[in-house]
Amino acid sequence: MKTVGIIGGMGPEATADLFQKIIVSTKAKHDYEHLHILIDNNTNIPDRTEAILNGGENPLPQMLASAERLVSQGADFLAIGCNTAHYFYEDLSSRVSVPILNMVEITMKNIVEQKIHTVGILGTFATLKVGLYDKLSEYGVEIIKPDEADEELIMSMIYDGIKGGCSDYDTSAVKCCLDKMVLKGVEKFILACTELPLAFRNYHLEYPSIDPTTELAKAVIIEAGASLK
Fold first, then answer.
1. Which one in 36, 184, 187, 206 has a CA-CA gap of 20 to 30 Å to 94?
2. What is the number of domains present in the chain?
3. Where are the alpha helices (DSSP H) in 73-188?
4. 167 and 92 together in one domain
């Protein structure tokens, strides 16, 4: 089987979540039937949203450094454990000698195959602003995004809640936001930030959703040559 390389650290808990989802989704009865996975938990990668929207430090050099470390250690292909970082996907993949799975493309393909008509996109300011998932509209999928005030709530849950290590984050305002989006016709929410699956789980947000981390984990397993449970 192929060796997997994960560009992680964006953030660490989300990286661990991807690793865990690969493990639990792999059909294996013995240790040696699991995948060989290399993880570079590179917390030196600058904030992607700050770079894209506010001219902050470019994360690409550190992402490339992670990719090169993983390849030098034997990774046959790579995965990026961050939705927003896929803004830099083309630049990164053109500079790396092995394939890089594209979590955004993988997730959109799954949505189209499910024949979902209306999705709500939840993510960082940057992911929504640059329209990483907006290509769905070309396939007839209606996209609904939070309004500006509600997007502040989602960002707070990502940064103050999960990234901030808050176990009892108050999600009452977030639930109002999600309820409004459901009333507008959202069938499923795309959890387009790798902290959001953790938020939905940890804070008990019981809304129909699509988890790009899970979709990436499944694609990793298949690309590596293993079988899904």
1. 36
2. 2
3. 89-93, 103-114, 125-130, 148-156, 172-183
4. no
Question: pTM of the entire structure?
Answer: 0.97
Verify whether residue 82 is a known catalytic residue.
yes
**pLDDT per residue over 37-76, tens digit each?**
999 999 999 999 999 999 999 999 999 999 999 999 999 9
Find the catalytic residue in 82, 166, 176, 177: 82
Longest dimension (CA), the chain: 50
Q: Is 5 in contact with 100 (CB distance < 8 Å)?
A: no
Mean pLDDT of all residues belonging to the chain: 98
Note down the domain range covering 112: 104-211
- Selecting among 166, 176, 177, 193, the annotated active-site residue is 193
Sign of CA dihedral 3, 113, 139, 215: negative
Backbone φ and ψ of 121, nearest 5°: -100, 125
221 closest CA partner among 64, 106, 61? 106
